[in-house]
Amino acid sequence: MAGLNLLGQLRDRAARLKGRVALPEGTEPRSVAAAKKLHAQGTARPMLIGDRRGVEEACRSARLSTQAVDIIDPVSDERRQRLADILYARRAERGMSKEEAFDTVVQPLYYGALLVAAGEADACVGGAVHTTADVIRAALHGIGMRQGITTISGAFLMVIPTFGGRINAPFLFADSGVVPDPTAEQLADITEASASTFAGLTGEEPRVAMLSFSTLGSASSDSVDKVRAAIGILKDRLVDFQFDGELQLDAAIVPDVGRRKAPDSAVAGQANVLVYPNLDAGNIGYKLVERFGGATALGPLLQGLDKPMMDLSRGCTAEDIELVSACALLMGRAGQTT
């Protein structure tokens, strides 16, 4: 699916789903501009959450008709009690009272998450002005983890302008937004989720490189041992995608280097999913490629939730929000939130 029209194809595929995307930062200019793009492109029906007067004023400033969006004020919305009941049912065991649930749901991030949980929205996308921790907290409390999943992680769909003779080459980087220092078990979970996400978004076969400063035993450290342990776990799970490691970055993505450093590897030199050993490497890595390489970075795409709620970099653009919304709809429909 990749190529000149990768981003356009994401929009087109999402548009066919006729989904509804909750934007909980409903008065933020970039969110409103994204809503305008979602409407104009036909990607999704935008749902702007926030103080009604503030949202309406933001729409006027953006020259966006209020008929093109759903404006949801949590304080007065008729669904508030029903959503509060959902939150209470999920959090009562942790000590939340019904009154606290009713008060909590007016927070836009919570309201967006709970609209998704209730089936009133198909996805929620926030984080333009909130931290990743804020977004994940609302997602975990309002939506929860998918059954059988123990790790939530953040992946970026990276669209590289030119690489290896391809235009707009897609890669997935993970974890670049959530888990600071994953265990071997968590690293295996992140790898499985990332392979699934890449296949669902691009239609291409994932080839996963487990990255390190070592290639197949060229060095040793606790970090390298962790990557090797994760590889052992994946082998025991009998996963149905290609993976290899530990691999240095150049061995993972440059064919000549891959052939020299890992001649027997089916992944070396051809990887399109890059799994980092920790968040330091993953976060720095995607931002280097985005800022120095001019890549489009869509995410963090949260993996592991029961239904899709996505985070954003606080440096995101309106187009980023629109495209992450498309990714969220596609991940939800394909069951790729694992």
Task: Quickly describe the structure.
Helices cover 45% and strands 17% of the residues. The protein is α/β, with parallel strands linked by helices and 338 residues long. β5 and β6 (166-174) form a beta hairpin.
Describe what you observe in this structure:
This protein is an alpha/beta fold. The chain has two domains: 173 residues, Rossmann fold, CATH 3.40.50.10950; 141 residues, Rossmann fold, CATH 3.40.50. Helix content is 45%, strand content 17%. It contains 13 helices and eleven strands. The strands form two sheets. A six-stranded mixed β-sheet has the order 8-7-9-6-5-10, with helices on both faces. It starts with 5 loop residues before the first helix and ends with a helix. The model has no long low-confidence stretch (mean pLDDT 93).
List the defining traits of the structure above.
Rossmann fold; five-stranded parallel beta sheet; six-stranded mixed beta sheet; about 350 residues; about 15% strand; 13 helices; alpha/beta; 2 domains; single chain
Describe how the helices and strands are arranged.
Layout: H1 6-15, E1 20-23, H2 29-41, E2 45-49, H3 52-61, E3 70-72, H4 80-91, H5 98-104, H6 108-117, E4 123-125, H7 132-142, E5 153-163, E6 166-174, H8 184-202, E7 207-211, H9 222-237, E8 242-247, H10 249-253, H11 255-261, E9 273-275, H12 279-293, E10 296-303, E11 309-310, H13 318-334
Parallel strand pairs: 1-2, 1-4, 2-3, 4-11, 6-9, 7-8, 7-9
Antiparallel strand pairs: 5-6, 5-10
